[in-house]
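Fill-in record for Deoxyguanosinetriphosphate triphosphohydrolase-like protein.
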Amino acid sequence: MTLPPGIAARPADSRGRVHAEPDQGPRGPRDVFQRDRDRIVHSIAFRRLRHKTQVFVAPDGDHYRVRLTHSLEVAQIGRTIARALGLNEDLTEALCLAHDLGHPPFGHAGEDALDEELRFAGGFDHNGHTLRLVCALETPYPAFDGLNLTWETLEGLAKHNGPVAQPKWALAGVDAAVGLELGSHASLEAQVAAIADDIAYDNHDIDDGLRAGVLPLEALLDLPFVARHWDAIGRRWPDLSLDRKVKALVRDQIGTMVGDLLAETRRRVAEAGVETLADVRAAGRPLAGFSDALTGEERALKKCLYANLYNAPALQPVRIEAQRVVGNLARAYLADPRLLPDAWHRGEGEQAVARNVADYIAGMTDPFAISRHEALVGPVELPEKF
């Protein structure tokens, strides 16, 4: 069952772009949300995700996920959900593909270090930096800076985690220019994209963590949600190898989460009586989400992953070294901005220098950050395996 057609985002009803584009050349068959998606895919920031950390820093195996593969997996899940609900698939896909563009090198470890070094200038967060990238730092067009995405795409990226009460520097600047109505909930396409992100990393990080030998299977099997799926797979295929059983686990858990999300979202929309996109934004609560039962199980899964994977003792030396690298780079460039490439000397004063440093470092891939640290500060000592 699809949702009422009026609650889906419609290209013809878009609030448009900041810059009019009368002279951008032939349009072809694409609508505005399809063009947004394609602009994201063709951006430099999207290509850089190939060398940015998902869970493991500079992984030594080709089978581990990086930010790029994660973003593609989120897009696949998000588009499937949008199609089942009758939402706009292209807007959903655009939001999924762009949601991690603002990550600095080394994932959340790098983000924490950069935020700490820039607290005097408003801090740093990757969601806000995603908006800064697509609104200012990408420069593929002759008449304006940024990708000039539609209001709906910018809104969805800004509210990736829901309404924003106190935007940090980058997001506040974009909001002042665009007016993203940060206090309200976003479109259902944006809500679906955010949950598709959760579904993807909840499950694919299990795959990577088990492959690396960091995440203990026993800890996962203590969770009723995982144990139910694991036991069901064992009953269907008693002689299945461990590797194939893990892949089946990931696949089945994603299927369960998507099915629950579809049913619960339909229930909430019907209960709220929403009929239009304006109703969705005015609902005062998310309309896309898991049931209460699955919400509790998904939170328990996240708690397990944080305890046994993201904060695992085996990964702490990597996290510490990654934070040291980003912190050292920030301090080096802040102390001597002349070390920045010429293109990053923009504006004057302490705040302008701080933003230049943040923009430059946040754009680095893991390998480039390592190479700049070795050139400016000294050796980087990341454990060989991870």
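KEY FINDING: The CA atoms of residues 185 and 376 lie 44 Å apart.
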